[in-house]
Specification:
By secondary structure, the protein is α+β, with helices and mostly antiparallel strands. The chain has 2 domains: 61 residues, no CATH class; 39 residues, no CATH class. Helix content is 29%, strand content 19%. Strands 1-2-3 form a 3-stranded antiparallel sheet. The longest helix has 16 residues.
């Protein structure tokens, strides 16, 4: 309707416990509707959780290629080249090994 299409959902996130629903707007931007999130304050010790496909949701449909930004075609190949270039040029937490893992999740 009006150029919006469902990208992924309805489901429940593990981190924060929000019920979520993701859509793409007419410009291709990802929009998340969410409700019922956990409330945190400064008494909660900060932590870290690995990024995995199974860690994205407690329940709901499997994550979609649209949500992950994996679309078939030349545009995807150019985007992938751009990501590899950024990893080489800028020191950050995304190594080639992690990117391979993300690609494996996206195509599973």
């Amino acid at each position: 309707e009006r150029g919006y299409h469902r990208s992924w959902g309805i489901g429940r996130h593990i981190q924060g416990s929000q019920i979520f629903d993701y859509w793409r707007d007419p410009d291709g931007l990802l929009v998340e509707h969410f409700a019922d999130g956990d409330m945190f304050d400064n008494t909660l010790e900060p932590g870290w959780a690995p990024f995995t496909a199974t860690g994205l949701a407690q329940w709901g449909p499997p994550v979609t290629k649209d949500f992950l930004g994996i679309a078939p075609g030349q545009e995807s190949i150019e985007e992938l080249r751009s990501m590899f270039s950024a990893v080489r040029e800028h020191g950050n937490e995304f190594t080639l090994t992690r990117l391979r893992g993300l690609m494996k999740v996206a195509t599973s």
